[in-house]
Amino acid sequence: xxxxxxxNIRVKGKKVKKTEKKKKQEYGTxxxxxxxxxxxxxxxxxxxxxxxEATDIKRFYDFALVCxxxxxxxxxxxxxxxxxxxxxxxxxxxxxxxxDGSYFHSDPRVIKEDKLTPLQKHNKFVDSLKDKWAGMHCxxxxxxxxxxxxxxxxxVLDTLSKxxxxxxxxxxxxxxxxxxx
Length: 181
What we know:
By secondary structure, the chain is of the alpha+beta class. It has helices at residues 31-41, 118-136, 146-151, 153-161, 168-177; strands spanning 10-11, 14-15, 47-54, 59-66, 75-78, 81-84, 95-100, 141-145. Helix content is 30%, strand content 22%.
């Protein structure tokens, strides 16, 4: 068994290199977010920043759409999603999107208001902070429920198309592909 060597000590006259710690990931990607990105954003050719950071409130929005089709932006891979790099490009998003899971964000169709856990109450508070921040910065915020992504893609497309242009052909293609069984 290999010996554990403490950091920054000398072994036989040589200084041991510090092992680099991996930067802690500040975000996590759910399968729901991946599905939404692939099935609704990428399928319609929409450019987005994944995990858009509102630095002054230290919170992340799931997606920030950038509808300026003229510019080309630097891209990066984050958790398997290819998105625009937020920092250093002077981007102001045209639309913010939050994907709200039924349990964690207390979908009223699933969770009764008087039965909320402390975690759900905290998430509702954070959601209200994000709502206020978006409003203060005049950026529309669209909240989409997990239930609608999984069971009612037509509703999601109709709502999304109120903010961005989605062709009729692409809409029909997605509706056919995502029909509930």
